[in-house]
Design brief:
Layout lengths: L1 H31 L15 H5 L3 H4 L24 H4 L1 H8 L9 H4 L13 H8 L5 H9 L5 H7 L2 H5 L3 E12 L8 E3 L2 H4 L23 H9 L6 E11 L27 E6 L5 E5 L24 H27 L1 H6 L1
Parallel strand pairs: 1-4
Antiparallel strand pairs: 1-2, 1-3, 4-5
Length: 346
């Protein structure tokens, strides 16, 4: 009979302990989210906005720092730190076999309390991490040996697009503002604060283009944004991003084949989205109508990739010009052939 009492009691305790664990995790923020704690060590401060974006926020502080007691910090016990491979074993194994494995640790690129998922960062954010070790000027110089317009490519593409075996690439577009002296062709990524003057109170940034608020952007909505005088200082910068990133950093020969990016055909790079900056520094992505990226007049006039960006109107005009160029010598030759006898008599 005692077991009938013990089992329900144990179940009840487990239910009560789960919220208690969450409460303990929240207690950490009571001290570590205050900037005054930096007086005891800069690394002790955890930015709550950045931390909430991480997957680690879901599992809680004590999942990685499992020796923290209720008497912390009075017990003077230094909190333990979990190793990345404890949870990310497959990624760690892949990374350790790469060219980077012996030169940089996980935390050199990923800060545990501020790491963001891929879709919440821009290509520029990724390249900033790479530039910690790979000096920008040297990177441009090395790529210029074989890559035309190396500066343009490096500014427009995240390094992981070419230097990992990632698959399923999409075109991600970012809102940019006009500035002078920028390495990105006179523009810079627009922040949340930069876009606030264009919004009404309470409006989301995505409504700048997604006018009907249906969570998807059509070609007509892109056309309205690109042709509006209200947004004259804003434009869209496109870059090719992988949907899923691998950690097998390497030099891949097929990336030196221009057709890897500049592919032609009806299925080439039609998937796209627009990344809108959020107040917390992350990005939210809104899908764009399939194929809209191909229209360089009304879809993305400031984004062009030779080989697949198309516009039906321009294609027709180009075909007429080409046909006219061929027609003139054909007509001229035909007339000369038909009048050859007359010219001989003369």
């Amino acid at each position: 009979m005692k077991w009938f009492l013990v089992l329900p009691t144990a179940a009840l305790l487990s239910i009560l302990m789960a919220p208690a664990a969450d409460a303990a995790a929240n207690d950490c923020h009571t001290c570590h989210s205050k900037k005054t704690i930096m007086n005891q060590g800069i690394h002790l401060y955890i930015d709550p906005l950045k931390y909430e974006l991480t997957t680690h926020a879901r599992i809680g502080c004590v999942s990685c720092h499992d020796n923290v007691t209720k008497r912390h910090p009075g017990d003077k016990i230094r909190p333990s730190r979990a190793k990345c491979q404890d949870c990310h074993a497959a990624v760690s194994a892949e990374y350790n076999q790469s060219m980077h494995g012996k030169y940089a640790d996980c935390t050199d690129c990923h800060k545990p309390h501020a790491v963001k998922p891929l879709l919440a960062v821009s290509g520029r954010d990724i390249n900033i991490q790479c530039a910690k070790c790979h000096e920008y000027a040297k990177t441009v110089k090395n790529h210029s040996k074989w890559l035309p317009q190396a500066t343009l490519h490096i500014d427009a593409l995240p390094c992981i697009t070419c230097h990992t075996g990632s698959k399923n690439y999409v075109i991600s577009m970012y809102m940019v503002k006009s500035v002078s002296g920028s390495s990105m062709g006179g523009v810079a990524l627009a922040s949340y604060e930069d876009l606030l003057p264009f919004l009404s109170t309470g409006e989301k940034v995505a409504t700048l283009i997604d006018g009907d608020g249906d969570g998807a952007i059509s070609l007509s909505e892109l056309k309205k944004f690109n042709t509006s005088g209200k947004y004259r200082s804003l434009s869209l910068l496109g870059t090719m991003m992988p949907e899923v990133v691998t950690h097998n950093y390497e030099i891949l020969d097929n990336r030196r084949d221009c057709t890897f990016c500049h592919a032609s055909g009806p299925n080439a790079q039609q998937a796209s989205d627009i990344a809108f900056p959020q107040q917390d520094g992350s990005y939210s992505r809104t899908p764009v109508e399939k194929g809209a990226i191909l229209d360089i007049l009304y879809g993305t006039p400031d984004f062009y990739m030779t080989g697949f960006t198309r516009n039906n109107t321009l294609s027709i005009i180009g075909a007429l010009i080409a046909a006219g160029g061929l027609l003139v010598p054909i007509l001229h030759g035909t007339l000369r052939f038909l009048t050859r006898n007359r010219r001989k008599e003369q």
